[in-house]
Design a protein that fits this description.
Blueprint: E1 4-9, H1 13-25, E2 32-37, H2 40-50, E3 54-59, E4 73-77, E5 91-94, H3 99-112, E6 131-136, H4 144-157, E7 162-166, H5 183-193, H6 195-200, E8 206-208, E9 214-217, H7 223-228, H8 231-243, E10 249-253, H9 260-267, E11 271-277, H10 280-296, H11 299-303, E12 306-313, H12 321-324, E13 330-333, H13 351-365
Parallel strand pairs: 1-2, 1-3, 3-4, 4-5, 6-10, 6-11, 7-9, 7-10, 11-12, 12-13
Antiparallel strand pairs: 8-9
Helix pairs in contact: 4-13, 8-9
Length: about 375
């Protein structure tokens, strides 16, 4: 995994130090190397040597021709009142933007350049697509919502923009605000009557979460709304979120069992994480669900994207998985204190759970540490 080389062409010592301090404070700061120059020729030479891992941030006054150079360049403008003078295709940002917003511009420039972008700062996969990770189980109480929340928070803490989506009839997701909203029902109307309008209105469902980089969509206000969502509606919802180009990751918390909306969500997913606990009831439901999938002919559609996770693992050798023919790719430990959760922060306090979840996700999705965007797409 390569570091991002942030090549800064600027002679303002205070500004340069501010950028250095910001990068040092980032969770992924160790994977970003800053090189500072005051001469355009030297900065360009460094950009050439960086190959596909460099971005040039250039003060406009030191970049008189305004051209794009030989790699991704972001011009730092003193004013945004006359951007029409810039050549087509040039990336630019107001010099005194908040630095997290400036880094988003760097990310866009890197993606647009067509570079491989195999480094910690790439917010999306190298092709610029959002990735959909869906948590599923055959029976309730497996810990889907907890796993979804913890994975989303781990990704958000690394600077990835993440959207959490609950498609449960009665959402158990503690990351959501509790007010009842009719927005999902309104969006469903457009999904059925005017799909193109539904795609355009997807932003109306998105809410800021409790933490930076974390967002969520409005849930169903009533179980009848959930029952009205077809497979096509669910797939349209995920496609609309992808097309919004706002998120590196979309994490979906499905309702346990089988339904049209579950089918559509799974069809729109890049990776399906199926949690199975080693008890008679969960194993029986999992076996029955797999038989149903085989009978419906959907098992082959999902096979290349499907991974089983052993849930509520207590350290004992599982006994039931072999019987139903599954081989879990990872485990999620049992956390007794989560029986009585009153605040969402409590779901993030068991560090060993989050680390085990991350290790399982890395192994399944082939995600390098601190670079969640470079995992291999099985399709």
């Amino acid at each position: 995994m390569n570091k991002l080389e942030l090549i800064l062409l600027d002679d303002d010592a205070d500004y340069v130090q501010g950028v250095r301090d910001y990068v040092r404070a980032r969770d992924d700061g160790g994977m970003i190397e800053i090189k500072v120059f005051s001469k355009p020729d030297a900065a360009l030479a460094a950009l050439r040597q960086a190959h596909d891992c460099g971005v040039l941030l250039a003060a406009e006054r030191l970049w008189p021709h305004g051209d794009k150079g030989e790699g991704p360049v972001v011009l730092l403008l003193e004013s945004l009142t006359d951007t029409g003078r810039l050549p087509t295709g040039v990336h630019y940002a107001f010099r005194y933007l908040p630095l997290d917003q400036l880094m988003q511009t760097v990310r866009r420039a890197l993606t647009a350049s067509g570079n491989n972008s195999r480094h910690a700062f790439a917010g999306k996969a190298s092709d610029g697509r959002s990735r959909v990770i869906t948590w599923f189980s055959a029976g309730g109480g497996s810990g889907k919502s907890t796993a979804a929340y913890n994975l989303a928070m781990r990704l958000a803490q690394q600077g990835e923009d993440v959207c959490l989506v609950s498609l449960e009839s009665l959402p158990s997701a503690l990351w959501m605000k509790r007010e009842i909203s009719p927005r999902m029902a309104e969006w469903l109307y457009y999904a059925k009557a005017k799909p193109h309008t539904a795609i355009e209105r997807i932003g109306e469902l998105i809410r800021p979460g409790l933490y930076r980089h974390l967002y969520y969509t409005d849930a169903f206000a009533h179980p009848d709304d959930a029952a009205d969502m077809s497979a096509e509606d669910a797939e349209l919802l995920l496609n609309a979120l992808k097309k919004s180009n706002r998120f590196a990751w979309i994490i979906v918390d499905l309702e346990a069992g089988w339904s049209g909306r579950n089918r559509g969500a799974l069809q729109g997913s890049d990776r399906i994480m199926w949690i199975v606990t080693d008890d008679a009831g969960a194993l029986h439901k999992t076996e029955a669900m797999l038989e149903l999938w085989r009978a419906d002919g959907v098992i082959d559609k999902f096979a290349g994207r499907l991974s089983f996770i052993a849930g509520k693992y207590v350290g004992l050798t599982p006994t039931g998985y072999d019987r139903i023919g599954i081989d879990p790719s990872g485990v999620l430990p049992y956390v007794p204190q989560w029986k009585m959760v009153k605040h969402p922060e409590e779901l993030l306090k068991a560090a060993f759970y989050t680390q085990t979840l991350w290790e399982a996700f890395q192994g399944i999705a082939q995600v390098p540490e601190r670079s969640a965007a470079t995992w291999n797409d099985p399709s």
